[in-house]
From TrEMBL:
This is Stf0 family sulfotransferase. Residues 11-21 have a biased composition (Basic and acidic residues). It comes from the Bacteria. Residues 1-21 are annotated as: Disordered. Residues 52-166 form the Sulphotransferase Stf0 domain. It comes from Aliiroseovarius salicola.
Length: 190
């Protein structure tokens, strides 16, 4: 394991190496990398110029930030079954603002890094993932056959109304109206 690469990061790269050596047709291996995960993965990616990268960004930084803050608060990162458990987000406007500006910075810097890489890449806005025909588009980009049974195992848990996700939403609209980001207060996915 390279120095500084954690168990998860090393496993992901090693999985790619094993798939490349495998005699079966396992050319398609994927993993989710988020800024904030081990940076050694970014460095190691250059060793595999044939990897195709799908970069998913989310225009609604408020929704993106609330999702992260909610996961940090509840320690529930992904849901594969519908769950009636709802714990409202306790973050206030400044905490949310801090996170959304971090995400905005990532979305400014990551494409610059991506342009320096040899990888073929595709940029997708989060809502496009839910559009009809997205699976076919992603398969065409990756060069794999579309299978109608391809579906995410994740299940949406929260309301589409962003403010419904807060314990005390009162100050959130005021802040986002003052900062001219009120477009993020409504439904993200309609």
């Amino acid at each position: 394991m390279p120095n500084g690469v954690g168990r998860t990061g090393a496993h992901r790269i090693d999985s790619r190496q094993r798939a490349a050596r495998n005699e079966r047709d396992e050319r398609f291996v994927g993993f989710k990398y988020m800024i904030g995960h081990n940076t050694q993965i970014l460095y190691r990616l250059s060793e595999f110029p044939d990897i195709k990268i799908v970069y998913v960004l989310r225009e609604n930084k408020l929704a993106q930030s609330v999702s992260l803050l909610k996961a940090l608060q509840s320690k529930r990162w992904a849901h594969t079954q519908k769950d009636d458990y709802v714990e409202k987000n306790q973050a206030g406007p400044l905490n949310v603002s801090h996170r959304l500006h971090e995400y905005a910075t990532y979305d400014e810097l990551f494409p610059l890094w991506l342009e320096t890489q040899p990888h073929e890449h595709m940029t997708v806005e989060y809502r496009q993932i839910l559009e009809s025909g997205f699976e076919e588009k992603i398969c065409a980009f990756l060069g794999c056959n579309f299978d109608p049974s391809m579906k995410s195992t994740l299940v949406k848990q929260r309301s589409n109304e962003i403010l419904d996700r807060f314990e005390k939403p009162g100050r959130i609209p005021r802040y986002f109206n003052l900062t001219e980001l009120e477009r993020w207060l409504g439904q993200e996915i309609g």
